[in-house]
């Protein structure tokens, strides 16, 4: 026998014999002609084919750095969750990137669930609704002086005549004054109120 048996290689690798049999069936081991396992070559092949987050023992030291571009999108998410964001500059490990990816996937699932429950609304739809409501409110205020002027003129004329003053207020004049004040108020509000849905 040129190499190790499954049992001996399992002890060498620190894995169960079943795990070695699975690796052998998956073609992740290098075998000699007699079917025995070439330990050194198999170690290299397994290390190259195994997900770094699933390696055991000293695998943490072997993890390759993740490019900064791949981490820029997840740093903010981790900070929002109170976790330490991966450092940039080449010291970020695969495990840190995988953790960040899992956090993002969890957030995405949570958002989908909230949308299904009706707790979230479409941004474009919300903006259109707010714009429509604001326009309707503005139009209602612009039309209000025409509706209220005649009533206010009659009430003020009646109040003045009760006090002994014989003054009749013109509806048209009252409407002009009300429109001036309403438009001034709307102008002032439009300078202060901004709907910025981001």
How many distinct helices? Answer: 8
Q: Tell me, briefly, the overall form.
A: rod-shaped
What helical percentage do the residues reach?
Answer: 55-70%
Order of helices and strands: HHHHHHHH
Please name the defining characteristics of this protein.
198 residues, mainly alpha, 66% helix
What does this structure look like?
This protein is mainly alpha-helical. The protein contains 8 helices and no strands. The mean pLDDT is 77.
Draw up the topology in text.
Elements: H1 6-13, H2 17-25, H3 39-49, H4 59-62, H5 68-80, H6 94-116, H7 123-162, H8 171-192
In short:
The chain is mainly alpha-helical and 198 residues long.
């Amino acid at each position: 026998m040129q190499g190790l048996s499954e049992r001996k290689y399992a002890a060498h690798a620190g894995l169960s014999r079943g795990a070695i049999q699975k690796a052998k069936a998956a073609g992740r081991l290098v075998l000699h002609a007699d079917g025995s396992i070439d330990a050194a070559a198999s170690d290299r092949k397994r290390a190259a084919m195994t997900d770094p987050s699933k390696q055991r023992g000293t695998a943490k030291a072997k993890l390759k750095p993740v490019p900064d571009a791949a981490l820029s999108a997840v740093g903010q998410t981790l900070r929002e969750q109170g976790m330490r964001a991966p450092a940039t500059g080449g010291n970020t490990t695969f495990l840190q990137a995988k953790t960040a990816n899992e956090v993002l996937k969890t957030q995405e699932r949570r958002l989908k669930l909230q949308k299904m429950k009706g707790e979230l609304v479409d941004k474009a739809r919300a903006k259109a609704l707010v714009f429509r409501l604001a326009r309707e409110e503005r139009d209602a205020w612009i039309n209000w002086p025409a509706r209220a002027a005649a009533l206010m003129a009659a009430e003020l004329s009646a109040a003045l005549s009760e006090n002994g003053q014989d003054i009749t207020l013109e509806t048209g004049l009252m409407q002009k004054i009300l429109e001036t004040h309403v438009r001034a108020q709307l102008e002032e509000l439009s300078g202060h109120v901004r709907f910025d849905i981001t």
